[in-house]
Every structure is written in structure tokens, then in C-alpha cells.
Amino acid sequence: MSWIKDYVRTIPDYPHEGIMFRDVTTIFESDEAYPRMIDEFVAHYRDKGINKIAGIEARGFILGGAIAHMLGIGFITIRKKGKLPHDTHTEEYELEYGTDALEIHVDAINEGDNILIVDDLIATGGTAIAALKLINRAGGKVSDACFIIDLPELGGSNALTEKGCDVFSLAQYEGL
Ligand code: AMP
Q1: For 32-67, what is each residue's pLDDT tens digit?
Q2: Which of 59, 79, 91, 103 is catalytic?
Q3: Staple partner for 27: which of 7, 40, 71, 160, CB 3.0–4.6 Å?
């Protein structure tokens, strides 16, 4: 079992009945776990030719910013609709109830950028695939995506792999 599971707080029935919410704020709050986790991601990506990180609001910023700093590369912000000030591309995606939308600045990507998507958790993959489509629309190529936690039974990591994106996660949980 991954050491990181000792630091994940599970909250049953949040935000809806039947969901096991995997709370990673308990990792971020730990002087031991947060830097150790960042070091694991950095070791994995150090020689992979990644030259930009795209973090998904909001926990992807806390993770991705630290990884980008350690790798000495830039950071692209993927935000919820209406938060970015300049011209944007928008992608809607399905939620359990209704839809949500993510945005990227149209000029966020430089030609040839090889991008790593970063978020805290992948479940159905709806969020990460919306991010991948935004990056493609802005002219970038996504080679990799990483998460602290994967819920493989929900199919998101498989769907990303099928789109040619290598997925790396530190811990996996069964079920929702
Ligand atoms: P999905 O788009 O279905 O892959 O869901 C991933 C997004 O929803 C991530 O940004 C997560 O923060 C959040 N999320 C989905 N399921 C959970 C869960 N069980 N615990 C914590 N966060 C979750």
C-alpha cells in the first residue's frame, strides 16, 4: 500500500450519499507528506521532456505549481468558467448532476509545448479530458497526466490512456 494513503482523509457521503470523498488537504498540511509527495512526482517526470505543466483549479494548482518549480518549467492555469481575464477557449463537461466548464487562455501554449496535466484525483476523467481538449485547441500536445489518487473503476485513467496520454498516480482506491 502506498504510504500516501496514511495521509488521505476519507469522508463518507460527501458531497452526496454513496461518495467516498478523498480529502487531500491533509497531505498539503503535512510538513513531511507534502514535500515527499512533490519529490515523487518530480523524480517520475525529471527526464521525460515535459516543458510545461497545466494545473486544474484548484487542488491541481497546489500540486502542479510545486512540481513546475522543482522541474524549472512554466505553469498553465486551467480555471473554472469566468475566472480568466483574457480571451479563452471553453470546454463543457458532464458532472453527476448537470454540466460544468473549464477555460484556458487562447495564448497560453507555445508551439511544441509538451504538457503534463496535474490534478488531485481522477474518477470518470471528465475533468481531465476537458483540460486535454482545451490544451489541444490552444495548440498544445498532452503527453502525460498525473494525480495523487486514481479511482480506476470509474474509467478515467483508461480513457486518458486511450487518448495517447500516459497516466501516473500515487494511490488507487476501489469503487466511487
Ligand atoms: P472526474 O471528472 O469524474 O474525473 O472527477 C475528478 C474531479 O472531481 C477532480 O477535480 C476531483 O477533485 C473531484 N472528485 C471526483 N471524485 C472525487 C472523490 N471521490 N473524492 C475527492 N474528489 C473527487
Answers
A1: 999 999 999 999 999 999 999 999 999 999 999 999
A2: 59
A3: 7
